[in-house]
């Protein structure tokens, strides 16, 4: 069976929906993890749909910035990479978000392997809220026709 390539927009919404559900039910570690994944997916959808990044079949898009090839994979480095790509008049759509402090600066995809007891309600709630803001920005940009 052939697995289709990534579709980051719908994946972002799915991860966010699950993160919100888990947050409401006190499953903080998984809510926190899925919030980060939702934000990553929404940012990758922005990169592909707006910033001219080309998708790959295997997952993370690859882009060349200042002659250096960069894999746009996980937060928090994904945030910094995308801030380098926002240029021009249309870049202002995402500049306010990406030039602000990264709400996922202390988040790591590798925490999925941890026990999870280090994730507090405040941290999880903050990450879920930040993911919601990022996914909402992606959805608004799509509705406005900014994204393809």
Question: Descriptors for this entry?
Answer:
148 residues, mainly alpha, Four Helix Bundle (Hemerythrin (Met), subunit A), 3-stranded antiparallel beta sheet, 5 helices, 3 strands
Describe this structure in words.
By secondary structure, the chain is mainly alpha-helical. It has a single domain (8-143), classed as Four Helix Bundle (Hemerythrin (Met), subunit A), CATH 1.20.120. It has helices spanning 8-24, 28-49, 77-83, 92-98, 121-143; strands at residues 54-56, 59-65, 68-71. Strands 1-2-3 form a three-stranded antiparallel β-sheet, with helices on one face.
| Widest beta sheet: strand line-up | 1-2-3
- Bin the helical content: 40-55%
- CATH top level label: Mainly Alpha
Distance between the termini: 28 Å
Order of helices and strands: HHEEEHHH
So how many helices? 5
Total DSSP E strands: 3
Which CATH architecture? Up-down Bundle
- The number of domains: 1
From the spread of the alpha carbons, the general shape counts as globular
Largest sheet: 3 strands, antiparallel
Mean pLDDT, as a whole number?
88
Low-confidence stretches: none
């Amino acid at each position: 069976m052939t697995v289709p390539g990534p579709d980051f927009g719908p994946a972002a919404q799915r991860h966010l929906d699950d993160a919100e559900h888990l947050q409401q039910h006190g499953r903080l570690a998984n809510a926190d993890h899925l919030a980060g994944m939702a934000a990553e997916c929404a940012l990758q959808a922005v990169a592909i749909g707006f910033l001219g990044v080309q998708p790959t079949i295997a997952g993370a898009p690859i882009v060349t910035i200042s002659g250096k090839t960069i894999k746009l994979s996980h937060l928090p480095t994904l945030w910094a990479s995308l801030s380098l790509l926002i240029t021009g008049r249309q870049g202002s759509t995402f500049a306010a978000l990406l030039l602000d402090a990264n709400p996922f600066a202390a988040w790591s995809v590798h925490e999925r392997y941890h026990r999870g007891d280090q994730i507090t309600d405040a941290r999880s709630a903050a990450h879920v809220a930040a993911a919601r803001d990022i996914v909402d920005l992606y959805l608004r940009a799509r509705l406005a026709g900014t994204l393809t």
